[in-house]
Amino acid sequence: MDARVTTAITIMRQLARNRLLISALSRRLNISPGRLWQLFRKDTGQSPMQYLKGLRMRKAGKLLQSTFLSVKEIAFLSGASDVSHFVRDFKKWFGVTPGEFRARGPLPSKHPMRNRKSRE
Protein backbone atom coordinates (compact mmCIF):
# COMPACT_ATOMS: atom_id res chain seq x y z
CA MET A 1 0.00 0.00 0.00
CA ASP A 2 1.24 3.46 -0.88
CA ALA A 3 2.64 5.34 2.13
CA ARG A 4 0.40 8.33 1.37
CA VAL A 5 -2.70 6.14 1.54
CA THR A 6 -1.49 4.64 4.82
CA THR A 7 -0.93 8.15 6.22
CA ALA A 8 -4.35 9.29 4.97
CA ILE A 9 -6.00 6.30 6.67
CA THR A 10 -4.21 7.12 9.93
CA ILE A 11 -5.44 10.72 9.72
CA MET A 12 -8.97 9.52 8.91
CA ARG A 13 -8.99 7.25 11.96
CA GLN A 14 -7.82 10.10 14.19
CA LEU A 15 -10.32 12.59 12.80
CA ALA A 16 -13.22 10.29 11.90
CA ARG A 17 -15.75 12.20 13.95
CA ASN A 18 -14.75 15.57 12.48
CA ARG A 19 -15.83 16.99 9.16
CA LEU A 20 -13.04 15.90 6.88
CA LEU A 21 -12.61 17.27 3.37
CA ILE A 22 -10.55 15.47 0.77
CA SER A 23 -8.98 18.78 -0.23
CA ALA A 24 -7.71 19.33 3.33
CA LEU A 25 -6.49 15.75 3.57
CA SER A 26 -4.67 16.00 0.25
CA ARG A 27 -3.01 19.28 1.32
CA ARG A 28 -1.70 17.54 4.45
CA LEU A 29 -0.21 14.87 2.20
CA ASN A 30 1.08 17.41 -0.34
CA ILE A 31 -0.74 15.82 -3.29
CA SER A 32 -3.74 16.85 -5.35
CA PRO A 33 -7.24 15.63 -4.41
CA GLY A 34 -7.42 13.78 -7.74
CA ARG A 35 -4.15 11.95 -7.08
CA LEU A 36 -5.30 11.00 -3.58
CA TRP A 37 -8.52 9.64 -5.06
CA GLN A 38 -6.53 7.59 -7.63
CA LEU A 39 -4.19 6.16 -4.99
CA PHE A 40 -7.11 5.24 -2.71
CA ARG A 41 -9.00 3.59 -5.54
CA LYS A 42 -5.90 1.59 -6.54
CA ASP A 43 -5.00 0.47 -3.01
CA THR A 44 -8.42 0.00 -1.39
CA GLY A 45 -10.88 -0.26 -4.26
CA GLN A 46 -12.78 2.70 -2.81
CA SER A 47 -12.76 6.46 -2.88
CA PRO A 48 -11.43 8.24 0.22
CA MET A 49 -14.98 9.23 1.24
CA GLN A 50 -16.28 5.67 0.86
CA TYR A 51 -13.41 4.47 3.02
CA LEU A 52 -14.13 7.13 5.64
CA LYS A 53 -17.82 6.21 5.68
CA GLY A 54 -16.83 2.58 6.28
CA LEU A 55 -14.63 3.60 9.22
CA ARG A 56 -17.50 5.59 10.69
CA MET A 57 -20.06 2.82 10.23
CA ARG A 58 -17.81 0.19 11.82
CA LYS A 59 -17.16 2.54 14.74
CA ALA A 60 -20.91 3.09 15.15
CA GLY A 61 -21.53 -0.66 15.08
CA LYS A 62 -18.92 -1.23 17.79
CA LEU A 63 -20.40 1.52 19.94
CA LEU A 64 -23.92 0.12 19.53
CA GLN A 65 -22.72 -3.31 20.63
CA SER A 66 -20.49 -2.20 23.49
CA THR A 67 -22.14 0.87 25.07
CA PHE A 68 -25.48 2.14 26.28
CA LEU A 69 -25.10 5.44 24.41
CA SER A 70 -28.15 6.66 22.52
CA VAL A 71 -28.28 6.46 18.74
CA LYS A 72 -28.05 10.27 18.68
CA GLU A 73 -24.84 10.20 20.73
CA ILE A 74 -23.36 7.45 18.57
CA ALA A 75 -24.27 9.37 15.42
CA PHE A 76 -22.36 12.39 16.74
CA LEU A 77 -19.36 10.30 17.84
CA SER A 78 -19.30 8.67 14.40
CA GLY A 79 -19.11 11.98 12.58
CA ALA A 80 -22.67 12.17 11.25
CA SER A 81 -24.12 15.60 10.61
CA ASP A 82 -27.64 14.59 11.68
CA VAL A 83 -29.35 11.53 13.13
CA SER A 84 -31.72 10.83 10.22
CA HIS A 85 -28.83 10.84 7.75
CA PHE A 86 -26.86 8.56 10.08
CA VAL A 87 -29.76 6.09 10.41
CA ARG A 88 -30.21 6.00 6.62
CA ASP A 89 -26.48 5.41 6.03
CA PHE A 90 -26.32 2.82 8.80
CA LYS A 91 -29.24 0.89 7.31
CA LYS A 92 -27.60 0.94 3.87
CA TRP A 93 -24.35 -0.35 5.37
CA PHE A 94 -25.66 -3.04 7.73
CA GLY A 95 -29.12 -3.74 6.32
CA VAL A 96 -30.86 -2.90 9.61
CA THR A 97 -31.48 0.23 11.66
CA PRO A 98 -29.15 1.04 14.57
CA GLY A 99 -31.87 -0.05 17.04
CA GLU A 100 -32.33 -3.39 15.28
CA PHE A 101 -28.56 -3.83 15.11
CA ARG A 102 -28.22 -3.27 18.85
CA ALA A 103 -31.14 -5.57 19.66
CA ARG A 104 -29.73 -8.54 17.78
CA GLY A 105 -26.43 -8.48 19.66
CA PRO A 106 -22.89 -9.08 18.41
CA LEU A 107 -22.33 -10.35 14.88
CA PRO A 108 -21.00 -13.88 14.53
CA SER A 109 -17.30 -13.92 13.62
CA LYS A 110 -18.06 -15.34 10.14
CA HIS A 111 -20.79 -12.82 9.33
CA PRO A 112 -20.01 -10.99 6.03
CA MET A 113 -20.53 -7.54 7.58
CA ARG A 114 -18.01 -8.27 10.31
CA ASN A 115 -15.16 -8.98 7.90
CA ARG A 116 -15.79 -6.44 5.14
CA LYS A 117 -12.21 -5.99 3.98
CA SER A 118 -13.28 -4.47 0.68
CA ARG A 119 -15.06 -1.69 2.60
CA GLU A 120 -12.09 -0.92 4.81
Description:
By secondary structure, the chain is mostly helical. The two termini are 13 Å apart. It is 64% helix and 0% strand. It has helices at residues 3-14, 22-29, 33-44, 48-66, 71-77, 83-94, 98-104. The chain has one domain (3-119): Arc Repressor Mutant, subunit A.
Topology:
Blueprint: H1 3-14, H2 22-29, H3 33-44, H4 48-66, H5 71-77, H6 83-94, H7 98-104
Helix pairs in contact: 2-3
Short recap of the structure:
The chain is built from 7 helices and no strands. With 120 residues, the chain is mainly alpha-helical.
Number of domains: 1
CATH domain class name: Mainly Alpha
* Overall SS class: mainly alpha
Poorly predicted runs? none
Whole-angstrom Rg: 15 Å
Helix content, binned percent? 55-70%
Number of strands: 0
| Helix-strand sequence | HHHHHHH
Kindly report how far apart the N and C termini lie.
13 Å
What is the CATH topology assignment?
Answer: Arc Repressor Mutant, subunit A
CATH superfamily: Homeodomain-like
Give the key terms.
120 residues, mainly alpha, 7 helices, elongated, Arc Repressor Mutant, subunit A, 64% helix
